[in-house]
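Hey all, sorry for the wall of text incoming. These are the two entities for the joint prediction.
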Amino acid sequence: MDYLDQLESEAIHIMREVAGQFERPALLFSGGKDSITLVHLARKAFRPGKFPFPLVHIDTGHNFQEALDFRDWLANSLGERLIVRYVEDTIKAKKLKEPTGRNATRNGLQTFTLLETIEEFEFDACIGGARRDEEKARAKERVFSVRDEFGSWDPKRQRPELWNLYNGRVHKGENVRVFPISNWTELDVWNYIRRENIALPSLYFAHDRELLLRDGKLMATAGNVIQPEADDERVTRKVRFRTVGDISCTAASESEAESLDDVIAEIQATRISERGETRMDDQLSEAAMEDRKKGGYF
Amino acid sequence: MDLLRFITCGSVDDGKSTLIGRLLYDSKSILADQLEAVEKASKSRDNGEVDLALLTDGLRSEREQGITIDVAYRYFQTTARKFIIVDAPGHIQYTRNMVTGASNCQLAIVLIDARHGVVEQTRRHSLIASMLGIQHVVVAVNKMDLVGFSEDVFSNICIRYAELAQKLAIPHITYIPLSALNGDNVVDRSAHMPWYEGTTLLHYLETITIQQDENLLHGRMPVQLVIRPQTAELPDYRGYAGKVTCGSFRVGEAVTVLPSGETSTVSRIERGEKDVPEAGIDESVILHLADNIDVSRGDLIVPSASQPIVSQDVEAMLCWMDSKAFSVGNKYVLQVGTARTRCSVRDIPYQLNIETYEQIEGIDTLKINDLARVTLRTAQPIAFDPYTQNRANGGAILIDETSNVTVGALMLAN
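and here's what came out:
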């Protein structure tokens, strides 16, 4: 069996375990390639039935319009339910202090809105597109990752996870984050997208764009999320986005890759990891991701 | 391209993390920024040299203590194969983590420090690999540079290991002398050991044939859920979704649903929204049956011609994983496939000393990381195969009803 078939079947099995073991699951959908892949896998797991969960998007208010349009189009064309909750609303209701200053991001505040949304709908399981190859704290996380009522991940108290037997039994108030593509690498996702001919937002392919050059990284000017500073240089470059997340912490890469084949060739040749190249939020400290996960982050 | 999942057993002292770091580094699976981060961390620890072990130790407390606490997964790929490395901790208090890690692996690398030879933990790791049904073990004799690349040292370790392996059930054992720190025989052949005529570790991993014995086993499909759209277009659609854990199913095949024992015929198979004539091992599919019989989550669909054991009395090898004791009379939830039922502990015929392999009788309580033979009585009959014949349908877990935690791994016998 080809490895992509094995990974696909494993992910479908995990999603069906969620459907079988939980009463109110949700699929966290960001509009990025990993969650788009999850939606494709959900079709394979549940069609001709409906998805046994809604798609849930936690909108930081700092998303690329292309990604939001794609999200709405995808939910619509599938005829599946989409729930959107806004970080902006949480900030107003809870009078949260927004991070300010250079490279400020709402990514941390997303956790508040996510936990509120979990409470609002009483979700007992949230499916996410995280992969173990992304980051070294993620490399240790189970496929079924039990979180306490504060959404915290306790790496020292993880449940043993044997064979393909997943234990989703939780107490009321606890919930489980489930990662069906845990064992996929960035390249696996791209190869699968190519094989399955999965549609993606145009941001993932090379296009001309106006950007700010800051600390050697190309930051998007879209939506005026990033306020230009004196040292920033306004440039126009041919770029693509290797990850599509919050505008404030997702940098663009210079690229000529206009097709899936080009993108895959570029990733195979690269010497820099996905998060290292594009994510500003993990570079804060050696244990940045571990700390955020303990705080309830995905 | 196919996929090989292997576990590395050993402690930091054996150079396990260094070996994994070396495999990733020499196969060019480490990217520039990841190496830079490790260089940065190495400097902050004043040990000068780039410490490849830091590539794998992910949690802060692991880095602080210089040990691996939990199972970590690493991914790399060569032109020959795609690999998942299951990096499991070696200390005795993490036996349960190694069992967790080994459960999905086809191959185990057991590291031995050439200076120390076969030690207690070698015996423990090998026992777990054997108990978990791993068919291929690579005995990696590491730190050969510290024994002058001596052939005698290597040969003696091989002899000692072969002795202990006689008590185990590992059909394929391969011995490789190496130095993970310097890269000898990991990816590139060593210039220091001309007497060694075997392959390098990576070449072995790339070329080993993993027997697809499971393909020849009888079909087993635990039902995960019933798909019933109940729409105007599909008012009568009723499909049973699940993953074929071993063997295969064909359209037209006579099948039995367990534990009820009701029979029918496979009338249709769907995979990824397409109709297919056959469902093979590891494929997630939807089966349709010709007759309208009662089938739901927790049932096991099998060919009528080759049925597993169906019983309420179960004997098994147990790895106990919880800090609360396991005692005769205790009650748990047992999960095998998608079936769950309550069970109570009848007896502990013996505990296994994980270093001498001796059977200790007269035990009525087990503590965390103990291995033992146990007998259980289930509330409902369960359908299973002996683990030694069929890993996919012979592994089970115990769940604590009050904490909901997975507390035991069972390798079913009888």
